[in-house]
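Appendix B. One record, verbatim.
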Amino acid sequence: MRRYFFITFILGWACTSSHDIVPIPENDNVITYTGDSLKNISIPLGGIGTGDILIGGRGNIQALEIFNRAAQTGELPYMTFFSLWLKEANQEPVSRILESRLPDDSPGPYGIERRQLAGLPRFEKSELICKYPFVNINLMDRNVPLKIQGEYFNPFIPLDVENSSLPLVQFNWKITNTSSKDIELSIAMNLVNPLLNINRNNKISHEGSFNRYFKKGNVEGISFLNNEPDSSPHYGNLLMATSFEQNNIQTAWYEGAWWDDATIFWDDFSEDGKIKERHDDVTWEGSDWYGSDSQSIVGNITTNFSLQPGESIKIPFYVTWYIPNRVLESSQAFGNTKVANVQMKNYYATKFESSTDVLDYYLENEKQLHKLSRKFVDVLFNSSLPSYAIDAVSANSAILKSTLIMRTEEGWVHGFEGMGHNSGCCPGNCTHVWNYAQTMASLFPQLEQKVREVSFLHDTHPNGYQCFRTVFPLSDNWFKSVASDGQMGNIIRVYREWKNTGDTDWLKMLWPKVKLALEFAWKGSGEVPGKNKWQEHAKIPWDPAKEGVMRGRQHNTYDIDFFGPNMMTGSLYLAALKACSEMALYLGEEEKYNEYWSLYQKGREKYESLLWNGSYFIQKVEVVDGIEVPDRLKSPPDANGKVIPKYQFADGCLTDQLLGQFLAFNSGLGYVVDQEKVKKAMYSIFKYNLIPDFSEVHNVQRVFAINNEGGMVIGTWPNGNRPRMPFVYADEVWTGVEYEAAANMIWSGLVDEGLKVVQILRQRYRGFNRNPWGEVESGMYYARAMASWSVLLALSGFEYDGVLHKMRFDPKINKDNFTTFWSCGDAWGNYKQSESSASIEVEYGALALNSIQIPLNSAFEVFLNKKKLKIKREDHLINFQETVLINQGDVLKIE
């Protein structure tokens, strides 16, 4: 009770501010956003690697990010919105844009942007409720006697990569007549043709794009086309359609100058809810008026219907797209001019040939895709996790549907670190950032396997040097740098993917390169012949004495080098050694097992002896023989005249000090350093690095928490001795590192402390201050934020070993009434636990089990679909006499 009293108090306090945020009910797991909490919301809906349509908090279509780039410059899609017309008997008609009102402020020098007709009436209020991928909009207006519910959606089904990668958004409007009279109604969808052409003056413009009436079976709409050849980077098409039967279709609004098009449309629509039919092809010829550069033709579908009192109806609209050719951003080449701005085909373009093809496939499978996506959401949001933890886990899964991720024609996966306004930031699957992300590994492990394949089969050289970013397209071009944290973390993630999927053949394919990558730690680059001589900057190994301790120059995620032993890179090294010893043993390489295991044990003992100060792990700053630190990287003398390399943390308390332990917990490796020391270190991080109020914080670095917001900084110096030039991000707040610390706390028994970190973090993302579906660091939708999934794993105590077919649950909260979502390489579902019973439900796939470990103390029996199974019990471990296969829809009960 003490724990949940605290949580309720904090949420209640936070919601008494001037911001219009509805408190989270104790018996519900979803936040309702309204008022000014809507203003910064931006939710990406689309397929993995397909681009997306950004949904704003008011229900508005904020951006069409379908052209292989971010599109968050603030320029709204021209005349793209839904609208409503209604008429009660003996009353004047009412017309509205189907969104809530815009904010009253007008920050621009030319008034409020009119590209979506800001001057037209909108609804007085709205609510946004998002159980991703379902974005629900409720609109209210005293002059509109209707209950209006919008549902925007794209399939999101764990393990089903193909059906979670569809380039489409479905928009459903459910309308209920709450009056005592019959009402005539119309709902219109308007969409601009955003496609480009090379025009007659050899310039890129909308000129030449055209709209065409579309009808196939009971589906009707408009195809948006251009005249580019299918090899052009601008080639593509979209489709806007509905399966509703009573429609007016207008392939294009009236074309004119100034605001002729909007004037004609709104006058026509607001008069009687109908628009003038138009089914001919219409081509945008451009205009000579001054505002036409970003203008294009707009298509319209208007649905007409009537409702009796109490009657409801659902109107579906679909937008699909096919933009097959992607010109890579210049940053993805890392200065390798031979591959800069290369054109590639998107993976989804190998599955479909047009936007019509996409819709055909979707409509054939719509019910099943909707059902499975809904099942995932229901299981997740019915979990026993605190509502703010579910909020963090769910909201950051939207990152996978943003423009952060692309997939090549061959199926390779590329991820930026974050997204800017119109480009990606920090490309190339940066290993030391993606180390933290756990969402894709848990929900779509097939994609994580593809990333590991590139890292080891392509980016790892014969001497074990692993480039920590990948140059796309894959070629004999390299990002010429190596990262100690990224490389060791990548090795642990091979172990994670192997255990999660049980795919030993896959491990065998990577294993030779995994060994090289590990042994690079004590071998370094060596002499490198030929064109790869650039690797010799890493000739001095990280562990030059092969003692299990990294002392050399250790490049890391702070974009600087640590010199000397530290537990951030050290814990990763220990976890990699432990993982490799286990993999070697399984693969029958006993000599390698002995080598790696003995080095792990030796290194663990030395690290703990060298770095433990009684409360946390510090850094011993030293420069090993053979490494020259240039003058520009030497700090000014401190008070005692001591000069050390710049950007170290020395005696500081680093939030990341047990990053390797975090990856070990996520991968099922257990503790890699002393359990009690882990707990003490995590408590010190909580005590010293979590700042509840930033009003008096002095920070000259980047700012991610401000004023009375709280957050966890990356480094502090509780005992003084802060270096004159500490590492460059020490005073910043990174959500991914906060989630890492929170999960580590929960795993090590500090449950209240870990939950408080998550709670304070998510208060910074409440809509009025930042976008809850786009946590930031070096860009929006930042990959490191997907460390949030580890909070679910820690709270549920879930582990799965697909090699041994062993599953484990150990809930950290609500142990007598606990439920959670779980997933592994072959299946996902629901786990429920009471004081004397438990059950595993498979909602997708098939789960093979040889054993399961759960914290039940009472006597019990085990049933699969009411059939009693033979077991052997060893305390909390249940061993089955033969492998049990739990198929979709099956329930394993322990009672």
